[in-house]
UniProtKB/TrEMBL annotation:
Origin organism lineage: Eukaryota, Viridiplantae, Streptophyta, Embryophyta, Tracheophyta
Organism, as annotated: Solanum tuberosum (Potato)
Protein name, entry field: Retrotransposon protein, Ty3-gypsy sub-class
One Pfam family recorded for the sequence: RVP_2
Tree of life domain: Eukaryota
Transmembrane segments: none
InterPro entries for the chain: Peptidase_aspartic_dom_sf, RTL1-rel
Length: 149
């Protein structure tokens, strides 16, 4: 686990989107295997967390590590008035409200454009959607599944 440096952060897109009718600061990161939600985000009361069958080790940019094993399943993530569902692992760090990783990008055939800072969809159903990033991010979390030795 390490803090991503300037070159690593070139393939991410940042923007504000809606989740459960909340405006959330979101990072699209193809370098992350899973998608995450900040544990301090206040969600509707009827939204429940369930346990994962595995642990995920998450490290902050300052080097703090935490094991995550709770997930919010099938969360409605809204982009340009279309609902996309995401399974979001709960994490305690507050750099972003939501991090969209490869699990979601793969599910929706989405591609992050490094130079253009856009997310585009290869599925014809969503090909008209282009997510434009608000700004570049050069220092982000590096996330990967925890693997026991």
């Amino acid at each position: 686990m390490r803090k991503r440096d300037d070159q690593d952060g070139q393939d991410v897109v940042v923007g504000k989107f809606h989740l459960f009718c909340l405006c959330v600061f979101t990072l699209f990161d193809p370098g992350s295997t899973h998608s995450y939600i900040c544990s301090s985000l206040v969600l509707p009361e009827n939204v429940k967390c369930v346990g994962l069958n595995y642990d995920v080790l998450v490290e902050s940019p300052l080097g703090y590590q935490v094991m995550c094993n709770q997930v919010y399943q099938d969360c409605p993530f809204v982009i340009q008035n279309l609902v996309f569902h995401a399974d979001l692992i709960e994490m305690p760090f507050k750099d972003f409200d939501v991090i969209i990783g490869m699990d979601w990008l793969y599910k929706y055939h989405a591609v992050v454009g490094c130079r253009s800072k856009h997310v585009t969809f290869k599925d014809p159903t969503f090909s008209h959607i282009i997510v434009k990033g608000e700004r570049s991010v050069t220092s982000i979390l590096f996330l990967r599944p925890w693997q026991e030795s």
